[in-house]
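Incident log, support desk, overnight shift.

02:14 A customer reports that sequence design results differ from what the structure should imply. Their input is reproduced verbatim below. On-call engineer (initials T.W.) acknowledged and began investigating.
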């Protein structure tokens, strides 16, 4: 029993530590590649709305980042920029922000915690909670590569 209790405490501590170090929530990024692949870039300009720049460009892909329950827009912008850099983009244009409904569901951590508790207490039974809806921030735009002027 003492070994089981130690295992339970270790598992609970690990779950609490991971919960404390998380950011605003689960970011979900989707990339639809439509152009060629380029080496990663170190800087990506952002343009909300129409592209006002002087450069000719080619489209590399569409990037969409969906936030988690407590995500801040700054986190989504940072992820959008990170994904665009990885594609080799020079800029993301036509950026739009919106919201969408997502759901919180019990994660694997709760299943492990339930298993650990049931090992130490055979009478314990965990009832799953129903999904909880919330409004999540969304940002999307088109990643582009500047073309050298001929």
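02:41 Re-run completed on a clean worker. Output:
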């Amino acid at each position: 029993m003492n070994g089981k209790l130690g295992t339970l405490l270790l598992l609970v501590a690990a779950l609490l530590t991971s919960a404390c170090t998380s950011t605003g929530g689960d970011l979900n990024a989707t990339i639809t590649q439509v152009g060629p692949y380029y080496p990663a870039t170190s800087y990506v300009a952002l343009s909300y709305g129409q592209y006002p720049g002087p450069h000719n460009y080619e489209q590399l892909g569409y990037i969409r980042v969906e936030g988690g329950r407590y995500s801040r827009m700054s986190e989504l912008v940072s992820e959008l920029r990170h994904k665009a850099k990885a594609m080799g983009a020079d800029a993301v244009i036509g950026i739009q922000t919106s919201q969408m409904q997502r759901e919180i569901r019990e994660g694997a951590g709760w299943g492990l915690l339930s298993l650990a508790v049931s090992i130490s207490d055979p009478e314990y039974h965990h009832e799953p909670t129903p999904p909880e809806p919330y409004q999540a921030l969304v940002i999307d735009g088109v990643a582009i590569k500047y073309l050298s002027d001929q």
